Amino acid sequence: MLLQGYTVAVVASVSRSGSRLTVTTRPAALTDIFKTANISFSQPIDFSNVFGTLSPGSPPSDPAGRTSSLHPEAAFSRAVKPVVPDVGLSYVGKGSNDFSYRVSVTPTLSRLNWSVQGCVGASFISGQSCVPGKSAGGMTMEATLSGYIAKADLSGGFDIANGRNVRSSFSFLSSGGVAITYQILDPSKGDLKIPVLRIPMSFNVPFAVAGVPMLLKVSFALLVTVALSSKNSTVRGGEKLTYGGAEAVTESGGSDSPVSNTMKLAGSFITSKPSVTLSSAAVEVASQMKVGFGPGLALANILGYGDVIVAIGQRTGTLVAGLPCSAFYLDVSGHAYMEAQVAVWRIASKPVLLFSKEYTDPRAEC
User: Fold this and answer.
1) For residues 283 and 253, what is the distance between their CA atoms, to the nearest angstrom?
2) Count of alpha carbons within 13 Å of 265, Cβ hemisphere only?
3) pTM of whole model > 0.85?
4) Alpha-carbon distance 114 to 219, whole Å?
5) Which of 111, 112, 109 is nearest to 89 (CA)?
6) Three-state DSSP state, 132
7) Other Cβ atoms within 10 Å of 113 Cβ, number
8) Whole-Å CA distances, 125 to 35, 64, 95
9) What 3 state SS string does 91-130 have?
10) Where are the extended beta strands (E) located within 135-232?
């Protein structure tokens, strides 16, 4: 049995205990919905209907730091009860090494503004602002990653024959921007490494393809690495980047191949605030903005992914040797992949590299 409404699921079992009826479901694939079909679609994305969801098992956010959905009805079916709980459009959480963060989005019809603010040795007051403090090692770090997705259009197609998805493709066309700024203060000599942190809240936009409810999911991850070789170090830097173009991939026969597109990139380094380090130091801050789509609400239903990864690095000179300087580099890359569906099995392929650019600051004196 296939259940379909705001979401799509396959009934795995049904049991009754007295007057209580329990229906157990599993995520539905397109091959559960169609046995033979040739589907093409092109869908502009209306971000004003976005709503947030948390990964299973994630701790709740600080209620004082939560921003409510502008259109909470997007997360409701025609039934009285919501399909998913309304968890708002922001989340405050914690990572390793005394790291706290807040992620939030602000939607309009054609644009989704996003922000990730991270702190080490600091705390959030009412979930809204990062108040400086000191970590157990004495280090203080504030980093803000912000950006937007605008003028987004999702297009693609599926060829389904005899219950098998024999060919899939998708293209996510958009413009966007990513800005990263950071400030690190450390009275001692220390290192910091925050492994890849996948933020458990995703932001979701509903739409329909051939009458099937679909969902666009936007999620984020970040990474921070700091190495200081002297006491009383101050490191500041950042970048501003804009991009525009399509991320596209085709899956056929269990393998993925990129579709040739040109991604336009432009930006600059933020060097207005000086860094002061008695000895050399190194910093890297990276962000991943990931977009996926699939039928229904379940994360397991995602059929295709695309991402933009931005990593900024900074190396400082040795002040005591007369080198009060900084050198910056920036790596920008994009990836995509589709899932191959063979019978009831779902096989995720390796991400296909769509573009990769490296930049250095030509004004660097180090």
Assistant:
1) 42
2) 22
3) no
4) 10
5) 112
6) strand
7) 16
8) 53, 9, 17
9) EEEECCCCEEEEEEEEECCCEEEEEEEEEECEEEECCCEE
10) 140-161, 164-186, 191-198, 201-209, 212-228
How many angstroms separate the CA atoms of 98 and 140, rounded?
A: 10
Q: How many Å is the maximal CA-CA distance in the chain?
A: 82
Which residues share a beta bridge with 136?
none
Whether the Cβ atoms of residue 72 and residue 50 lie closer than 8 Å to each other: no
Question: Which of 56, 123, 113, 67 lies closest to 93, judged by CA?
Answer: 123
Closest CA to 307 of 359, 243, 253, 231: 243
Which residues, at least 6 apart from 31, have a Cβ–Cβ distance to it below 8 Å?
Answer: 160, 163, 164, 165, 341
Per-residue pLDDT at 203 exceeds 80: yes
Rounded to whole angstroms, how far apart are CA atoms 62 and 286? 25
What does the pLDDT look like over 47-88, one tens digit per residue?
Answer: 998 999 888 788 877 654 455 554 444 433 333 333 556 678
Of the candidates 273, 291, 274, 262, the one whose C-alpha atom is nearest the C-alpha of residue 147 is: 291
Give the number of other Cβ atoms within 10 Å of residue 172's Cβ.
26
- With the C-alpha atoms ordered 200, 220, 124, 283, is the resulting torsion angle positive or negative? positive
